[in-house]
Design brief:
By secondary structure, the chain is α+β, with helices and mostly antiparallel strands. The protein is 21% helix and 51% strand. The protein has one domain (26-131): Superoxide dismutase, copper/zinc binding domain (Immunoglobulin-like, Sandwich). The chain has helices at 2-23, 104-109, and strands spanning 27-34, 42-49, 52-59, 67-74, 79-90, 94-100, 112-119, 122-131.
Amino acid sequence: MVRTSSALAAIALLAAPLATLAATPSRISITMHALNDSGENGTATLTQIGGSVEVVVRLVATPTWAQPTHIHVGTCAHIDTAPEYALEAISGGGSSAVVPGIMLAQLLKGSYAVNVHESTNDLGHYVSCGAIRT
């Protein structure tokens, strides 16, 4: 009887992380909201690809210059000004980047946001932001 209980306990311990992994989506789409009257609304799609996350951002009403884009710790209302992960700059209304070494589950467990800056000359002026959550 002891062996059966030990075996069941071991299976339960192994199954718990697998259940969490299975519950995490492999792709999410978040809404990007315009900030500071920029009109730059859109979406960001985050997809797990092996041990990396691909981030594709599409915005409307973007300017002709490139706009730095990052994943920041925090919420759109209370964001850490230091970027956590660099993404490709928005150009022509969109960008696509692969961030190595992170898991979508990690981003969803924490408090993170995709943030777009006005320009390289005005990093403190945010024009679009979306919370990373399901």
